[in-house]
Amino acid sequence: MRLVNHERHALDLRTTPVHLGRGSTAKSVEGFAWDPEVLRAYSAAVAADGADGRMVMIFDGEGPGDHWESHPAGDELVVCLSGSVTVVRAVDGRLEHVPLGPGEATVNPAGAWHAVDMEGPASILSVTATLGTDHRPRTDTPPTGPAAVPGPGEAP
Known about the structure:
Elements: E1 2-5, E2 18-21, E3 25-30, H1 36-45, E4 54-63, E5 67-70, E6 76-91, E7 94-100, E8 105-108, E9 114-129, E10 134-137
Antiparallel strand pairs: 1-3, 2-3, 2-4, 4-9, 5-10, 6-7, 6-8, 6-9
């Protein structure tokens, strides 16, 4: 995994996310994978951005999400690009269901546990606060309590 400044070719946000950092920087994340070692390396590489760091990525899929997640360091923007999705989130002790169609978006508040269910094939774009992101297996009810925000250099 490495951060690359000023790519001169098109990026596929499905496989190569972009990290938005302090000072309005944008760096592609070459060699990104949902692997613990890669995630630790990414976290260390962007630690100086702290709560200001954001990851931009596209996800394709269908069916219910298999995990809850929370981003305690900041809000997350979720944009439906194609198909239809429902963002399910826990806010103030109750579940909210926010249906989205192409071009529609919602903001998951910092610290809110949420999941994304895709009705048929769908694509979303997310702009996610990277510091402290936590994932838990999906159950009928979301986890309670906030995810812990790690200090600089700790893996999300």
